# Entry
Amino acid sequence: MSPKPAPAGRDRLRIAIQKNGRLSEPARALLGSCGLSWRESPDKLFCYGDNAPVDLLLVRDDDIPGLIDSGLCDLGIVGRNVLVEQASERDETGKPANFREWRALGFGGCRLSLAVPNEWDWRGPAQLQDRRIATSYPALTRAWLREQGVQAEVLVLSGSVEIAPRLGQADVVCDLVSSGATLSANQLKPVCDLLQSEAVLAGPVADLDPLLAGTAQMLLRRIDGVMRIRDSKLLMFQAPRGSVADVLRLLPDAEPATSYAVDGGDLLAMQALCHGVVTWQRLEELKRAGARGLMVLPVERMLA
Ligand code: PRT
Ligand code: ZN
# Structure
């Protein structure tokens, strides 16, 4: 696809993140782990990258897809729920969205669920025919209703959606759920998930302008490195050749182990990047399978 023109020859990558809210701290922490740092403007709306040409714009999450769409920002960190809702909105009006998900980021997990009053005996979407659904995600909800072949009234609320059935405003709700505590407190139960969501790195559909593409590639490589070693440990050990297969069977969550012979003999020195928790119990099992000199090390950075 042809590159998107850099507005007015801008050569610093601009990333929109949430100013205040659930995703603002983890988004900054992720970019910080990529080695980036900033100076904040006095109004705290703009952060100037002081060790790389990467600036941050601090905004409301709902504005992020539009900022990418217009080219005012190049990338953004936003919930998939917001991105897909705004893409569905554009779909309804026949206007293509010029933004898409580039990477899932593994935090801010939640789901967009349909929830009905506890006393309902849920038998399926057909039960929603001619009912009223309160939601902050009308385009996604309408798209799902169309798929189900059900006609229902979609009532748009910007907050306190879960209370709508108790107030008699709606029959059911379609809202974000993480622990489920808010639904329970409002005597509602989730019956169907419309979308699994988490924070994502969003960017344009088209390629970035060459002035910015190199910096974006550098950032993506670092994000991939950070994601790959998140909750990972490097496991180092030695094992006789004959035990290696048994030992590796106990490491299903490890990336292919590298190994080399010690003194050209039967003993192999091995290392494997493990993505699961390496407990004492696992170490003991590995030892019983033939591994020796087991060492678990934290991984600080990784560049593939
Ligand atoms: O001010 P701004 O517009 O930027 O922020 P906001 O108020 O629109 O968003 P914010 O900060 O509340 O959420 C930002 C993003 O966090 C969302 O778009 C989701 O991608 C993600 N996220 C993850 C959640 C939740 N979990 C979540 N539980 N967003 C909202 N909730 C709310 C939900 O709407 C419901 O009211 O929490 C309540 C349910 O939580 P549980 O734990 O009781 O199920
Ligand atoms: Zn918002």
Notes: The two ends are 26 Å apart (CA to CA). Residues 16 and 253 are 34 Å apart (CA to CA).
